[in-house]
Write a sequence for this structure.
């Protein structure tokens, strides 16, 4: 079943998913929530700069792929990962694979992953008067990339399907043009650590710290499915996932830490006890 014919389909699916997530997470009109986010960036230079820095890091990740192609560096650590894991990923994939499940896993990997990130940033601006969770999310995502990019450059590991003959690259069943349309966003040998794992773990930790129960459980369950999808689709090794989990936990902790010390006049704020309390305080 083909879900995505081009990146235009990915963009439309992502836009719709973000709208649904914002409505679910806030219980408010998603257009109003999005408008609040835009106004916040317009009136707060610090939050605008932080958002710009986040976009800059994402751009840096794309530039890393261009730089990597020009490097005279031919190391390949994939055989090491295979020596450690053997047929583990192949066995997991064969155990899980179902025809009806492939579109679900592809949708989670490509669309829901990035939609959760976008929705988290916008929602935390709307619900949190201190904006601490917004800042923590920005810092944490940047930390994920800053730590991961050197590994991508100097510790290259090829995707599991590319190296292991018994692992299938199942995402092509739902996105046949993946290699030509999406590959420029994700290098073939940029496996360790798994950013899909680390960012999903980061978002889940911050969601649970928000104390919005339905949002926390939604993000937590989505993170678990996204992490499963990296094996189902034949992309990552188990070692990639373990490294990504450690990176995600570390990034979330550092993001929360740094977000305490960038308020005006040197004030610090506690982690929100509940978003309901914060919303009532704002009103």
């Amino acid at each position: 079943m083909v879900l995505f014919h081009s990146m235009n389909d990915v963009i439309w699916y992502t836009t719709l998913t973000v709208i649904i997530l914002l409505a679910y997470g806030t219980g408010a009109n998603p257009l109003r929530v999005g408008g609040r986010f835009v106004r916040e960036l317009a009136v707060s230079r610090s939050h605008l700069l932080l958002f710009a820095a986040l976009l800059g890091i994402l751009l840096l990740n794309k530039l890393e792929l261009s730089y990597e192609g020009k490097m005279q560096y031919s190391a390949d650590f994939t055989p090491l990962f295979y020596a450690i894991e053997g047929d583990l990923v192949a066995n997991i994939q064969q155990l899980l694979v179902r025809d009806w499940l492939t579109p679900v896993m592809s949708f989670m990997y490509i669309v829901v992953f990035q939609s959760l990130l976008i929705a988290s940033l916008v929602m935390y601006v709307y619900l949190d008067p201190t904006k601490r969770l917004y800042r923590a999310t920005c810092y944490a995502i940047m930390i994920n990339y800053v730590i991961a990019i050197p590994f991508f450059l100097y510790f290259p590991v090829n995707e599991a399907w590319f190296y292991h003959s018994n692992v299938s690259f199942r995402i092509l069943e739902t996105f046949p043009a993946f290699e030509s349309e999406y590959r420029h966003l994700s290098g073939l040998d940029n496996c360790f650590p798994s950013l899909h794992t680390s960012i999903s773990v980061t978002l889940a930790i911050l969601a649970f710290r928000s104390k919005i129960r339905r949002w926390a459980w939604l993000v937590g369950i989505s993170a678990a499915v996204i992490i499963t999808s990296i094996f189902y689709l034949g992309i990552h090794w188990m070692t990639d996932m373990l490294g990504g989990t450690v990176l995600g936990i570390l990034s979330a902790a550092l993001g929360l830490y740094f977000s305490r010390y960038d308020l005006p006049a040197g004030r610090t704020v506690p982690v929100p006890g509940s978003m309901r309390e914060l919303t009532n305080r704002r009103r």
The domain at 7-282 is CATH 1.20.144 (Vanadium-containing Chloroperoxidase; domain 1). The first helix runs from residue 7 to 26.
